[in-house]
Design a protein that fits this description.
Elements lengths: L4 E9 L5 H10 L9 E2 L3 E2 L5 E2 L1 E10 L2 E10 L18 E7 L3 H18 L6 E6 L11 H11 L2 E4 L5 H18 L14
Parallel strand pairs: 1-6, 1-7, 7-8, 8-9
Antiparallel strand pairs: 2-5, 3-4, 5-6
């Protein structure tokens, strides 16, 4: 078996889109005993405001390779948030989350993407766009096609998820690992999915 690889993934998005729910479903959904929540130091942004960063760790195997994941789950950003520099240090991939029930979160995720590219100074970084809360059919305002089109405009992977369903939560994190590997020249590109599981 190859040596485990360490990967650091940051989860970004507007308030209440389900970033923590998705992370905790992934981390605790199967391995409650191996979960080690540590609240890291509060980061201070350039404008002097504090921003909470939660770190989770989890082992996962993707395509026969074991990964030691460090998940940086950030407190919600809005369009005026200034990214702390810690969001770009040693990060291997980014999961940008919006809620399919919120136009505001969809607009904010576009701003977060722009700020992210400004901060990392690259046009292309491993990014996965996630439309969360797909189980709330009656409240949906963002179509799967809109999410997919936005991800395609960024050359990012895309899927919809529901933090209530463990299966899609795990799939989100597997896909971002594959994206990060693809950027390093390792794995084939995954397809965007709008399938309603």
């Amino acid at each position: 078996m190859p040596q485990p690889k360490s990967r650091k993934i940051a989860i970004l998005g507007y308030r209440s889109v389900g970033k923590s729910s998705l992370t905790i479903q992934f981390v605790e959904g199967q391995f409650v005993d191996s979960y080690d929540p540590t609240i890291e130091n509060t980061s201070v942004t350039h404008d002097g405001t504090a921003c909470l960063v939660y770190a989770f760790t989890k082992m996962i195997t993707v395509n026969g390779q074991e990964y030691h994941l460090q998940l940086v789950d950030t407190a919600g950003q809005d369009e005026y948030s200034i990214f702390p520099q810690t969001y770009s240090i040693d990060i291997n991939g980014y999961i940008l989350v919006y809620s399919v029930t919120s136009n505001k979160s969809f607009e904010v995720v576009k701003v977060i993407h722009e700020k992210l590219l400004d901060m990392v100074g690259k046009v292309q970084v491993p990014i996965m766009l996630v439309g969360n809360k797909k189980d709330l059919h009656m409240e949906r305002v963002i179509t799967c096609e809109e999410g997919k089109a936005l991800a395609e405009s960024w050359s990012a992977a895309f899927m919809e998820s529901s933090a209530k369903e463990n299966q899609t939560a795990v799939e989100v994190f597997k896909r971002i690992i594959l994206e990060a590997e693809r950027f390093e020249g390792g794995a084939p590109q995954g397809r965007s999915s709008c399938s309603l599981m």
